[in-house]
Amino acid sequence: MSSSNREFIYRRLHSLLGVIPVGGFLIIHLSVNWFATRGVEEYNRAAAFMEALPFRYVLEALFIFLPLIFHAVYGLYIAFQARNNTSNFSYFRNWMFRLQRITGVLVLIFVTWHVWETRVAAAFGAEVNFNMMEEIVANPAALIAYIIGITATTFHFANGLWSFAITWGITVSPKSQRIATFVTMGIFAALTFVGIRSILAFVGV
Amino acid sequence: MTTETANKTIELIIVRQEDPESKSYEEKFSIPYRPNMNVISALMEIRRNPVNKEGQNTTPVAWDASCLEEVCGACSMVINGKPRQSCTALIDKLEQPIRLEPMNTFPVMRDLTVDRSRMFDSLKRVKAWVPIDGTYDLGPGPRMPEAKRQWAYELSKCMSCGVCLQACPNVNDKSDFIGPAAISQVRLFNAHPTGAMHKAERLQTLMDGDGGLSNCGNSQNCVEACPKEIPLTTSIAAMNRATTLQSFKNFFGSDNTA
What we know:
- Chain B: One of its GO terms (biological process) is tricarboxylic acid cycle.
- Chain B: It comes from Alkalicoccus urumqiensis (Bacillus urumqiensis).
- The structure holds two protein chains of two kinds.
- Chain A is mainly alpha-helical.
- Chain A has helices spanning 6-19, 22-33, 40-51, 56-79, 92-123, 130-137, 140-167, 174-201.
- Chain A has a single domain (6-201), classed as Fumarate reductase/succinate dehydrogenase, transmembrane subunit (3 helical TM bundles of succinate and fumarate reductases).
- Chain A has eight helices and no strands.
- Chain A is globular.
- The longest helix of chain A has 32 residues, at 92-123.
- In chain A, helix 1 (6-19) crosses helix 4, helix 5 (92-123) crosses helix 7 (140-167) and helix 7 (140-167) packs antiparallel against helix 8 (174-201).
- Chain B is elongated, with a radius of gyration of 22 Å.
- The termini of chain B are far apart.
- In chain B, the strands form two sheets. In chain B, strands 2-1-5-3-4 form a five-stranded mixed β-sheet.
- Chain B has helices spanning 3-6, 39-48, 117-125, 146-156, 163-167, 180-191, 199-207, 221-225, 232-252, and strands spanning 9-16, 25-32, 76-79, 82-85, 98-101, 108-110, 113-114.
- By secondary structure, chain B is an alpha+beta fold.
- At the A-B interface, helix 1, helix 5 and helix 7 of A face helix 8 and helix 9 of B.
């Protein structure tokens, strides 16, 4: 047993980065997506505004990509360390534990694909606008993948908030943890609505 | 024995293992029914007459037991999928065939006997005691408020039975996680007025090294499984808060030793 507290710091960092900044970014991203429900013009204006932010590459690296990569890589390590036992212990929280790990892996696959199709395509000269997303989700398989990906992301974030509150010692009593379950599942429902309503705007619903 | 119970049997499937290295296998047993039996008395019946369901002679099943009143923790095993004490597992309340397995989170020694040494190693790691030994009498310690004594008493009921470790998805061969029991003991000894004098040191044992407090993934199986109904998840969350504060003190502060 080593005497350093490296693992403790990594775990706490993993918990923190999932909320700040990655979770914060998710909320901003979903909010910007909502412009799609207001039409092509509004959406393109919002996308252009985000793209024109000063110090964009620094902001993207520091507040999105680096924390996201750490959270994803260390999260995979955590997920594969578990031996899931929901067959013998089919309690609600044990299922949530398992779903957190399943959605974590799903989100990593989804986000990699999403970044590939949008940011990497943009780096090769494609323009990020309403038209780009419209073309992607014109394929029904891609639309379904987006709906699954968005739901997995909002679940992972909302349920992650619940365990964040325990990890940092905010919700200690069983009552506060129970109420946190309701609050975070409310956040899950609200963010899923925002995400799916926005993606459907690209197929004209 | 009444005629009603004369032909009744108890069906058991037991996961057996010759020694720590050999492979496990299942053996079926069918033993005569008696009223008010528990899993221990069923195992004693097999020991008295070690014949399996097929009528072949076999070795008696090995298991651990001591107090027979659910306070020592020795007779823990997995009964119909759930880890619990076999002394309080009443045959009349179990679905048959009754499946008995060793708690395989621990090294299996033979049949249902496991080596729970890691429970005790963990107590040593977290310094789950109040150090008062010295060269002179220190006199009486500070008083403990009654309200605090009451909840601390609940934590003191832990018998190191290992059920919470068996139920935890993060305690396994791929992870070093210390498990809920020892974490709860840190809360207990840090609540003790004299024990609190070494509070920071105990919290440090949960932060240092691999497999400490932060390996908890909040599946909360432990609190469901604990036979003594110890609020293990509350203890874990309370230690999360205490280590958050302690790590801030360590990094930013100066008075970080107590």
